[in-house]
Each structure stands twice: as structure tokens, then as C-alpha cells.
Amino acid sequence: MTSVELNNVTKKYDKEKVVAVDDVSLSVSKGELFGLIGPDGAGKSSIFRILTTLLLPDGGTATVEGYDVVKDYKTIRGNVGYMPGRFSLYQDLTVEENLSFFATVFGTSIEENYELIKDIYIQIEPFKKRRAGKLSGGMKQKLALSCALIHKPSILFLDEPTTGVDAVSRKEFWEMLKRLKQQGITIMVSTPYMDEATLCDRIALIQSGKILSVDTPSGIVKSYHGKLFAIKSDAMYKLMNDLRAFEHTRSCFAFGEYHHISFKERDKDYTEEVLNYLQAKGHTGVEIKSVTPAIEDCFIDMVEEKKSEA
Amino acid sequence: MKQLFSFIKKEFLHVFRDRKTLMLLFGLPVVQLTLFGFALTNEVKNAKIVVADYSKDIATKQITEKIEASKYFDVEKSLKSHDEIEAAFKTGKIKLAILFPENFNENLLHLHKAQIQIIADASDINTATTLTNYISAIVADYQRQLMKDASIPLTITPEIRMLYNPELKGEHTFIPGIMAMIMLLICVMMTSISIVREKELGTMEILLVSPFKPLMVIIAKFIPYLLISFFNITSILLISVYALELPIKGSILLLYSESLLFVVTALAIGLLISIQAQSQQTAMFGSLMATMLPTLLLSGFIFPVENMPLPLRIISNVVPSKWFFIIVKSIMIKGAGISVVWKETLVLTGMMLFFLTVSLRKFKIRLA
């Protein structure tokens, strides 16, 4: 059973000059936790807004729970939960007032669906008399999620729910999503953080409005062909420049405390050559090791691939 | 229904949580009434007037001296023709002219009554009224002096003519004017700002992705401001009756019904602005341009529309506050009923329907 389906959806802005969503086709199964992963400006929010019937696509068709986003927008609006990219609740209302307002707007009450939001709401309940504008980033997100959930939607659209939230709250938030998934709710979530991708069932990597790949996180990692190395030395900035100047380098970028490097001849082990090269350049404390690629490596690799194709 | 109530409750919470705006909403009418009430009844000093004495006798001389002695007037004595006097009025050189007809003293002594013609430039109503009142008082004072010596009653009748605005339209008109302005200001500005704020904060996005109907958003936004407006109307009327001693001559019920009509029109305008505006600032400036300026300039509130050039008179017809102003003035000051103001009511109803239809049609159910 598919929950969300996009067929060749295109969205252009600014008198057709800017292509935000470029011929995107996707499908999300019922009960899936689906991640839309890509940097800022990749077109994630536009896709979410098309699916929540807030924007009309310029081309292609899309359905949510079998309903067309253009024709049946009214039906969709009553059945989805949507959490926009930035905090969109009433800052001058208290936590409780916000929640009860959204509950009534959707024709339900806090009591009726309390079970569904209990896990999340219980964490902010001590602050229920506090105005929403005075909450911390993490608590705001919890409240927004509670509000999006209060009417028991069959599908949740969460647009960058963890942006601007501290690491602990982010982790908590994903745990909440996992619990919601267990209740059979389809969740479509977008994030610019590649490390969150592994927490999804399936992900779509998106860049400049185009889908680069749709697969399970492990499938995407597996599809990475060739070897990847992590290198560090005592002078990281110089190291980056030197590695990029190295004749066999395909790509090199910073990754935590290491630089990740891949080579043009992708399956060949260049460890020796690199070490010699770096020694000649005067680097000390050089350390090199082979690593399994992360989603970010795959993403960068796919972007590089696109670039070389073009 | 429950949804609507909850929405209205939310709107009230917005209004009451914002203390500064709340104070402004309730304080505005009082401040404006006081400002206008006192500013418009300012005393006049050294007004330029002309005395045209066709009689030149002892009585006219004495009256003229009395007038000259007053600090209010700057008297120019001359024997000007009627045409010259009128020309002086038109150029605004003089505010008032006093004409003593021939044989003034003789008439007073033999016929026991005489007339003085007082002509005032009534395009500036307040000055005109004040000046004529002063002159009449001086003349009455002189009359009393004469009476002391004479056994027979002597009467000097000041015959007052108000040039340009004979009916003195505009007397105390600042109250209907302020009513129109405040209702426009509150309804247009507050509704447009409160809708645009939902857009700006992104809450509109969530509201749109809900089973909520646009019409309900509009009604819910409307009710708090309607109630505030009615509260303000009541306070304006109370101040005008008890503090400014201006009684309401017509039906209060009719006054409130017409106000309701006007408030809904204002709301519809606010709605239309909010649909076009993307930020609260734009909404505010748009509202100010759409309400304050036309109300101040073209409604007849401060400047009589009758004296305006034709193009402005035509434009003034599309200003809703002009019609409301006429209605309230007729009801409050002249005590008119619906039979008198039905035409204006009809125009206002038409405007309301127009703005409401356009804004409901243009209300965006999507983001772009």
C-alpha cells in the first residue's frame, strides 16, 4: 500500500526561472518512516507543501493516501498532520491553549487522543501554562509535534523538525518518531542532517530539486562503489589543499576530525602513494585508514557524479 | 460551531495578551475625542474684520469702538462696496464683515429697532460661529446700555449670514467623524494585521492544512474587533452626551445598526488588504492609507465636501466613511430616521457587499 506518491512533479518559482522541484517521482509506503535528505534549498519544503496541498505543482501529479493533491485537497487537509519548517504556533498562547486550539480546529479534543501524544506531551506538560514563545527550541518542537498529531492523522509531514534543536533533543525527537511509526502512522520527514538519515526506513537524497537516489540507508551505503579513506595530519587545512592538488584525488572533504578522500581509480588502494606524497609536502602525524562510507559520503559522491556528467 | 468558538476564543486571547495594543484600542477614542473636542473649539484672537458703516452716526460709532476695544478683533474701518467685501472674503483676507445700514441711529431712536448685518466666512465653521457669537454679545451689551437710559425697549437685531456654508454643516461633526475614523482604524487595521500576522508567523500554513473553512477564519477574526468597536462607539457616545453635552437626537438603535453595517464594511476592507499584504508593516501602511487619509480629507469630517473641486467631490463618493459620516450626522444631530438616510445606507450596504465578495473570492486557500 502506498501512502504518498509523486509522479514527475515539477515546481517552478519566480516566473518559471527557478526550478525548485525538478521532475520528482517518489513513493512512500504505508507505515514507513521516509526521509527526504538534502541541503538547504534542495526543494524539500516545496515537496512538502505540494503534498500538504499548500502549493500547486506546475507539472506532474501527486497523491496522498490515494487522494489527488489538487482535486481532493479538502479531504487531504483533514487527514494529514503537518509541521512546517519553522515554528508555527501561537507564541502568545500557552502550551495548553495551543494544543487545545488545534485539537478543536480538527474537531477533536486533547482528552480524546491523549494516548497518541502522551509520550511527547508528558515532557512539556509541566510547562503547560507557559507561553509557547517562551519555550526552548526542543520543547517548541515537541509542542509542534503534539499539535500536528492531536487529530490522529494517518500521515505526518515533518519539514525539518530537528533544525535548530540541540543534539539531545534531536535524538529524543527521532525516538519519538520511531514510537509513532509503531502506531502505524506514515511519517515523511525532511532533514539537512545526513547523520539522521540512518534512522529512516528509506531515504531520498535530493539536490537542486532532483532526486539523486531512493533506497534504504544501508542500500545507499552499499551502492557506494570503490574505496574511501580517512586521513588526518597535524595541519588539517594544508592537508585539504594538498590532497585536493594530488593528481589521483577524485574528491576530498572534511568529515569530523578526518578528511575523507576518494580516488579517481576507485578500487585501487593509494595508501602508499598518498603517504609518500604527503611526506614530500612536509606533513607530520599523518594517519590514513580505510573507512566504510556514511550517507554523507554517498551524497557527496552522487553530487560529484552529477557534476562530471554535466 | 465548537471550532468557531475555539477560534474566537483564541482571537480574544491574542487581543488581551497584547497589552499595549489593547490600551491603544480602548484609549484611542478618548484621546481623539479630547484632542478634537478642544482643538476645534479653540479661542479666536485678532481676527481680521471689516466694518462698513453706511450710517456714520453716534450709535454706530459707539458700537464700532466697543468692537475695536475687544482683543478678539482686528478692525479695518472702510466704506467698501458689497463686491469689495465679497472679494475680501474670497481671498480669505477677512473672516467677518459688519454692515451698518443707513440711518441706523434714526431707526433705533424713532422705530425703536435697528438691524446690523453680520457676515461670516463659514467655510471655517468654528471660527465663524465663535466670531458671530462675540459680535452678537457686544451688540447685546450695547443695547443693554441704551436701555438703561431709555424707557422704551430698543432692539438691535444682528442679522447673521453665514457665507459658503449657510446651514453651518459641520457643527460638532467631529463626533460622527471620530466614530467613523476609529471604527475604520480598528476594524481595517487590526483585522488586516491579525491575518497577516498569521501569514508571517506561519500559523496560516497550519490553519490551511486543516478542515477549517476560510469563512470561519474571517468570522472569528471579525468578532473581537466588532465587540471592541461597539464598546468604543458606546464610550464615544457617552462622552459626547455627558462631557460635551451633545445629545443624540435620533434613534440609538438605528445608530448602532448603521454602525454595524459600517464595521462590516471596514472589516471587508481590512480583509482585502490582508490578502494582498505580505508583512504586518505593509498591512499597517495599507490600512492607514485606505482609512485615515480618505476619512480625514474626503469624508466631510474636516473639510466640507461641498467646497471641493469637482474631481475630489466625485472621488469622495467611493469613500465609505463619507456615507457613514452623513448617516451618523443626520441621526445624531438632525434626529433623522431611516426614511432620510436610506439612500446612504443603501450605498454603504452596496460597498459592504462588494468588498466582502471580492475579499472572500480572493482569499487564498493555498500559499502562493
Give a brief description:
The complex is a heterodimer of chains A (310) and B (368). Chain A is of the alpha/beta class and 310 residues long.
CATH class of the largest domain in chain A: Alpha Beta
Read across the widest sheet of chain B, the strand sequence of neighbours is: 2-1-3-4-5
CATH superfamily of the largest domain in chain A: P-loop containing nucleotide triphosphate hydrolases
| Unreliable sequence segments of chain B | none
Instruction: Provide the number of structural domains of chain A.
Output: 2
Number of strands of chain A: 14
Based on helices, strands and strand pairing, what is the structural class of chain A? alpha/beta
Structural class of chain B: alpha/beta
Helix content of chain B: 55-70%
Give helix % range of chain A: 25-40%
Count of helical regions of chain A: 10
Strand percentage of chain A lies at 25-35%
Task: Name the features.
heterodimer, A: 310 residues, alpha/beta, Rossmann fold, Alpha-Beta Plaits, 2 domains, B: alpha/beta, 14 helices, 5 strands
SSE diagram, text form:
The complex is a heterodimer of chains A (310) and B (368).
Chain A lengths: L1 E12 L4 E12 L3 E5 L6 H8 L7 E6 L2 E2 L4 H7 E4 L11 H11 L8 H11 L12 H13 L5 E5 L7 H16 L3 E6 L10 E6 L2 E6 L1 H6 L6 E4 L3 H10 L3 E7 L2 E6 L7 H10 L6 E4 L4 H15 L1
Parallel strand pairs in A: 3-8, 3-9, 6-7, 7-8
Antiparallel strand pairs in A: 1-2, 1-4, 4-5, 9-10, 11-13, 11-14, 12-13
Helix pairs in contact in A: 3-5, 4-5
Chain B lengths: L1 H16 L1 H21 L7 E7 L4 H12 L3 E6 L3 H9 L5 E5 L3 H8 L1 E9 L3 H25 L5 E9 L10 H28 L1 H6 L5 H30 L8 H25 L3 H19 L11 H7 L3 H15 L3 H25 L6
Parallel strand pairs in B: 1-2, 1-3, 4-5
Antiparallel strand pairs in B: 3-4
Helix pairs in contact in B: 1-9, 2-7, 2-9, 3-6, 7-9, 7-10, 7-11, 7-13, 9-10, 10-11, 10-13, 10-14, 13-14
